[in-house]
Amino acid sequence: MSAPRRAARRGRDRRAEIMMPPSGRDRFDRADAPGVAVVGGGIAGLAAASPALAVGHAIGRIGCFMVGDDYGRPTDLPWAIAFPKGLPPTDVPVHPTQVYEAAMLLPIAWALVRWRRHGVADRVVLGRYLVLVGALRFAIEFVRVNRQIAGPFTLAQLIAAAITVVGTVMLLRPLRSPART
Description:
The protein is elongated. The protein contains six helices and four strands; from the N terminus they run αααββααββα. A hairpin with a 2-residue loop joins β3 (about 150) and β4. The strands form two sheets. A two-stranded antiparallel sheet has the order 1-2. A two-stranded antiparallel sheet has the order 3-4. The protein has two domains: about 1-25, no CATH class; about 35-170, no CATH class. It has helices spanning about 5-10, 15-20, 35-65, 95-115, 120-140, 155-170; strands spanning about 80-85, 90-95, 150, 155. The protein is mostly helical. α4 runs antiparallel to α5 (about 120-140). The protein is about 55% helix and about 5% strand.
């Protein structure tokens, strides 16, 4: 056992116990491996912030709705709305995609809070967030008015697909079990 760990166990330096990695982990789980602390801290920080990110995103979409930005294609559905002073203006009733997205982001935020409270691993929470938000945006883009750049797909869909893939990779990687000391 190292001297800082022994000192921490005796209570002389509590910070050393917190910062020292448990013995027996491979080099990618060690806090002294290059970049690992930054990546692990980034994942934990983003996972902790993910519910707030989803709520903030929903609030932003309501803002887009209020100024008439980012609306969908024309429709004759009863909840369609025209944005005569929108960005760009339209007198034709369109899908309120901003409301669709905001309405779906709030349950996602709720689920993220529940997962965090139930102790789901940070990487899993963040992976689920990326998959859910990426898939949501990908789907909504089918009724949005954006220029298609790769076949039937818009730039936002390509970015959403990439975000979903990153989230899926995070979810598919096996979780490492903590080393026993």
